[in-house]
Amino acid sequence: MSLLDVSGLGIGFGGLRAVDNVGFSAEPGEIVSIIGPNGAGKTTLFNMISGVYLPDSGHVRLDGRDVTGAAPHRLARMGLTRTFQNLQIFQDMTVLENVIVGFHQSESGALLSDLLALPAARKRSEIARMQARELLRRVRLDKAAEELAGNLSYGALKRLEIVRALAMQPRVLLLDEPAAGCNAVETEEIDHLIVELAQSGIAILLVEHDMKMVMRISNHVVVLDHGEKIAEGSPESVSKNPDVIAAYLGAGDEESVDADS
Ligand SMILES: Nc1ncnc2c1ncn2[C@@H]1O[C@H](COP(=O)(O)OP(=O)(O)OP(=O)(O)O)[C@@H](O)[C@H]1O
């Protein structure tokens, strides 16, 4: 039994089969990347796994438990969390406050006692601050804890987005283009962070257009084209797969599956 098991997943929009019969699995500590040309169905697949879209076929299982169609906040409580392509950061809050908001998303029924500032709520909020600082240390953002998030560099914001997801203590973390818009140095920092998170036992699911990053850090790569899985395997094997090369050439993407290009 895998930590995450996706089988036969599919969804249609009108006449279009955006994702059809896609399956793969992920184990603790593994980095699994979903790649494919523009419009291949990567984001739609992520949206189904993370409960944003309800699939019309197939299953998502977490530790063997069928969680297909569960709402994102329920999935997060069960250990599956995601980040979004567009930053979901509160620019007018401090870096620390942004992480603390992440903790509150993982709690249920805490709001009333927090509003009334009951002793239990004060205690919980102290613990949340400590844990938030510890997470920020982990991604080397602790020195910026009291700064407004809006003042951070783009690369730091992308790392903050990941920390916020970590506040939910995920066992499976879905990262949607974590390096999009980052320069080479920022990409390398995110690259290291993802590897560290995987080493700590989290299963990482990655959608990323930076093919060099995908090839460098993935243990397993799943390739989609027109909503279907056309290949999967090690980064090396998929980058040499003729169907994969043809899909990228056919799509006329400026990116290439060949990480050396
Ligand atoms: N909500 C929706 N309604 C209708 N069609 C959609 C919807 N979401 C996605 N699609 C279509 O489904 C297909 C897959 O889109 P998706 O965004 O999942 O691809 P992608 O691989 O993530 O692309 P990109 O690399 O450009 O982000 C596309 O043809 C897209 O237009």
From TrEMBL:
Quote the PROSITE patterns the UniProt record gives: ABC_TRANSPORTER_2
Keywords, A to Z, come to: ATP-binding, Nucleotide-binding, Transport
Name one molecular function that GO assigns to this entry: L-isoleucine transmembrane transporter activity
GO CC, one annotated term: plasma membrane
**InterPro entries attached here?**
AAA+_ATPase, ABC_AA/LPS_Transport, ABC_transporter-like_ATP-bd, BCA_ABC_TP_C, P-loop_NTPase
- Would the keyword Nucleotide-binding turn up in this protein's UniProt record? yes
Biological process GO annotation list? D-alanine transmembrane transport; L-alanine transport; L-isoleucine import across plasma membrane; L-valine import across plasma membrane
Q: Which domain of life is it from?
A: Bacteria
Q: Where is the ABC transporter domain?
A: 1-251
Q: Magnesium: is it a keyword of this entry?
A: no
Could you identify this protein by its name?
A: Leucine/isoleucine/valine transporter ATP-binding subunit
- This chain's source organism reads Thioclava dalianensis
The taxonomy runs: Bacteria, Pseudomonadati, Pseudomonadota, Alphaproteobacteria, Rhodobacterales
State which gene encodes it.
livG
